[in-house]
Every structure is written in structure tokens, then in C-alpha cells.
Amino acid sequence: MANFLNKRLDKIQATGSFRSLAGTVGGIDFWSNDYLGLAREQAPVTPTNQRNNNPTNWSSGATGSRSISGDSAVYQALERRIADFHGHSAALVFNSGYTANLGLLSAILKRGDTILYDELMHASCRDGIRLGFARVVKFLHNDLEETLIRIGANEQKSGQLFVLTEGRFSMDGDVAPLSEMAALCQEHGAHLIVDEAHSGGLDGQQGKGLVADLGLQAEVFATVITYGKAFGAHGAAVLGSQELRDYLINTCRPFIYTTGPAPAQWRGIAEAYDKMEALHGEQTARLQTVIGQFREGMTEAGAGRRLTPSNGPIQVIHVPGNDAVMVAEAACREAGLLVKGIRSPTVAVGSERLRVCLHSFNNEGEVALLVETLGRICAI
Ligand SMILES: Cc1ncc(COP(=O)(O)O)c(C=O)c1O
């Protein structure tokens, strides 16, 4: 009966991209997105979270969509806090970053609209675009201008023009030139959307993100912050104008037609902000030391040329080919290091890489072992 699935799985096997779930794996963490170690930290006790610990505020299930029984004044107060923290007019929380991107993009992209997106955008954004009805144009990584000039002149007459980028790119760790992009969007009447999954909680004062750090809130149409990475929790928020929030509450299918985030998830998000306010400065200073040690070590080991110029916790070592990158991942595992090999089609064929995630909690000995192991792999 399910023979067709075996045939499809065989095809995946043949490309070297078959995935299986690993269960619990021991080793030194160089693969999680918990850049600041906040997922491991207890939340500091504040008057707000003491109040939030009251079990009547945090039952075990949401009991319905937020449009019906799944809402509460406590959640709306947290959304107000989130909007204020990042300096936007309004925030709307989603179950995950994936659903936030899917929901935002599918809701706003109407027939007659055009969206320009960076070629390295995350799958959740691509899937959101696929659910919308806009004309879709890809631009070269971090190189918007030429495409915007070519498309912008014709398209904006028939509908809305959107530009989509990540703040800090998930697979390359580099940042988008957001100030330049915002100025270009202003000039060409385009609405800029920034996915801050990997910069939210990391970049900017107290982890407010790149849009806030650059003071671009008024020029950015929508910002997506996710809580599963530097915030060390789970969920996401779309930040923008009050009108955008109202529009999403009314039209966004992945928001309306699903059970709202569980109370424990709201609590996790609230605590993540408490942790950010208390710990961001200290943890990012530690992280910078770790990044410095790693990059210097790699250069001294003669492997510097395999690194990309990322100044953040996501560091990339190119190992082209699905089989080769899996061999490199296994060599790391053998040495007790948890490093993820990223294969095609997650990244383009030929750009397979080890994606090293550095953390504030990685100690000197761990980084030295990582450098020594990668140096050996790169020498092959
Ligand atoms: C750039 C980017 N956007 C969105 C997401 C989705 O976020 P979440 O894991 O909260 O669903 C990810 C997660 O990998 C990501 O890297």
C-alpha cells in the first residue's frame, strides 16, 4: 500500500539528504540556537512574574482560538509589553516563528501585489509567500537595489510592493544592510518586512533586535521576533502598527484557525523578557569572547579561509557536498562535539556547510577542542 512512499524515500536517500531523528544525544552544544544560554537560566523573580505564577492565570491549555476562548487580559498585557520593549506600536503573538511568517505573508500578499525576497530567506517565509497571491521576485543576497529599481517602477501602480529580508541570516549568520534597504523602500514606495528570528534577543540593547537598534521601527512595515532562539523560549510575535495587528486578527488564517498558545508558553515568553532585561548585557559580553576565541583559533589553525565573515554566534565552515558534510558532522560527533551539517536542499547545492552555533556558556576548553577538530577536518 505505502510502496509509493518507499520509492519517494529511496529518492531522498539517493541524494544523501535523508533525515532521521536522533533522540537524546550527548556532547558539547555547538548546534542549538540558545545563543545566550537563556533556555538554561531560571527567570529572575520580579513582581510581574510572581503575579504570573498564580495558577489561575496559567492553566494547562488555551481552550480555543484566541478569537474565541483562548485570549486573556494577561496575554494582551504581555503583547503591550512586547511592543513597548521593541519600540513598535503593536505586537501579536503566534505559536511559532514558522506560523508567524506563514500567517503574516499569506494574509498580506494579495493578487496584484509584488514581493521581492532575499534569495537566502528561510523556508517559513517561502512557504508563506507560496500561500499568498502576489507576484514573487527573488533578489541576490543582500543586494536589493538593482531589482527594486527594475521592478518598483512598474509594479507599485497595480498593487502593493513588499520587500522581505532576515535581520541576521539563519544559515550564514551575516546581517542585512537594513538602514540602506529601508531607505530604498521609502524611495520606491515598498513595505519592508524583517524576520528577526536570529537577531531578536541577540542584537541591540537588551536584545531588542536590529530594527530597534537602528531606530527603523517607523520605516519597517512588519518585524517578526521569534522566541525559540536567543530568547530561549518558544513562539513568535509580529510587530508593527495597530492596523497591522487588527488586520492579522481578522484575516490571518494560521492565527484564527488554531488553538492559541498554551498558558505555559505565554509564561515562558514573559519570563524570557525578564531574563533578557536582567542578563542580556553579561551574556552577550561572554558570547563575544567566545566568538573572538573561535575566529582567532580558526585563523591560527590555517582554516580561516573556510569561514564566512559572520560577526555573530552562527559561524559557517564550507564543506561542499551532502556526503562530505555528513562525514565532517560525524567527525565532530566522534570528538564529542554537537555540530550540525547542513545539506542541500536546505542550502543551495555546492554550499553545504557545518553550521557552528557559539554560545555564551561555551568555555575555553570546549572552543579549543572545536577549533582543533575543525582544523583537522579542513586540512583533509
Ligand atoms: C529565519 C527564521 N525564521 C523563522 C524561523 C521559524 O521559527 P520557529 O522555530 O519559532 O518556528 C526560523 C527557525 O529556524 C528561522 O531560522
Q: How would you describe this structure to a colleague?
A:
By secondary structure, the protein is of the alpha/beta class. The chain folds into two domains: 23-40 and 279-379, Aspartate Aminotransferase, domain 1; 62-261, Type I PLP-dependent aspartate aminotransferase-like (Major domain) (Aspartate Aminotransferase, domain 2, 3-Layer(aba) Sandwich). The protein contains 13 helices and twelve strands. The strands form three sheets. The protein has a seven-stranded mixed sheet with strand order 2-8-7-6-5-3-4, sandwiched between helices. The longest helix has 38 residues, at 263-300. 45% of the residues are buried. The site of pyridoxal-5'-phosphate has 14 residues, from helix 4.
Any key phrases for this structure?
380 residues; alpha/beta; Aspartate Aminotransferase, domain 1; Aspartate Aminotransferase, domain 2; 2 domains; 3-stranded antiparallel beta sheet; binds pyridoxal-5'-phosphate
